[in-house]
Design goal:
2 domains; Dna Topoisomerase Vi A Subunit, Chain: A, domain 2; 201 residues; Helicase, Ruva Protein, domain 3; 8 helices; four-stranded parallel β-sheet; homodimer
């Protein structure tokens, strides 16, 4: 802003909001204004909610999920099959799988993928912790549910190598046509994978 | 979410973030996760910034702008021409005009537009306050800078009627081709207005 019409307080709020994924400088301004206009209904509760999360939420020391208890609800749930570990890149992926009720086992959040470009090495991810969990015993299957990107696949192969000496089954998610997806809109790689992995009816 | 993987604290944060303009349920989840992952660098400062704004920022009793001082910086600026009042719908419009350094006078924020559909009546807007400011004297021009929408124009005409008895010049922003705009992409209404208001070179 050429002339500062907004006080430093609002300016700072706008700058912080703009750092949230999905909000640019323009939408951060709109969001800040919306907050100022809705003091009681939104600004005050959001401040309180942030304080609550800051006070209570931490990273699970077992799987890397975020929760108010540590180990997290999923790790402490006795109905969960602890012999099966599902490895994901981020907590958001864990949430997505949980929404789908797709996993009966427990999770392991890597915190990203290996990346030569971004300089992310194995020691920057929670890979040693995964190997440790598997080595400590009782784990029968490690399901690698990383994204189907180049970095994701590199990471998957690295993890597979690290687990090679352990007597554990390593699996990955199936590739194929998304449910409800139209063939015409799919890329060649997915179609080729779907044909290769075809099942008899 | 079918099964609640996230604690009530994070769930509440997601719900509040989803009420910000520009963030849907999905991006609110991503934003919440981003906050949790960046406790020191983002979550804590954002909470503090919200508290600051809550404590210090209020609506200017003269023009309706939001600021840490009341009357606001613009209303108290002696270099501002108080004989010219620029009427806008929202504070965001005021900020936009200030960024353009387009107004040398002072502002009056209506807080919206008249709308039969949304049930917004003249008494829901700061129109009486505007008439009061004009009646109290010294104002030579009221520039109505509402949006060029149907509701905006309805509001402009209503304000013009309310000010008819006062000896004050009422103006509106020019319609025309946006600077840098290509004719091919403009609607017929704008083009017709631009031709009608053509100027000799």
């Amino acid at each position: 802003m050429k002339r500062s019409v907004v006080g430093v307080e609002i300016e700072r709020l706008i700058q912080l909001l703009a750092r949230l994924p999905g909000l640019g400088p323009r939408s951060a301004r709109r969001a800040a204004l919306h907050l100022v206009k809705n003091r009681e209904k939104l600004l005050q509760p959001l401040g309180a909610a942030l304080g609550d999360v800051l006070d209570k939420v931490s990273e699970c020391r077992v799987c890397g999920n975020v929760d108010v208890v540590n180990p997290c609800t999923l790790c402490s749930d006795p109905r969960r099959d602890t012999t099966q570990i599902c490895v994901v890149e981020e907590v958001a992926d864990l949430w997505a799988l949980e929404r789908a009720s797709a996993i009966s086992g427990v999770y392991h959040v890597l915190g990203g993928t290996l990346s030569a470009i971004d300089g992310i090495r194995p020691e920057d991810l929670r890979i040693a912790e995964l190997v440790q969990r598997v080595t400590t015993g009782g784990v029968k299957e490690v399901m690698i549910a990383v994204n189907a990107t180049v970095d994701g696949q590199t990471t998957a192969h690295y993890i597979m190598d690290q687990l090679a000496e352990n007597n554990v089954k390593v699996t990955r998610l199936a590739h194929g046509v998304p449910v409800g997806g139209e063939l015409d809109y799919l890329d060649e790689g997915t179609l080729a994978a779907a044909v290769k992995a075809r099942r008899s009816l």
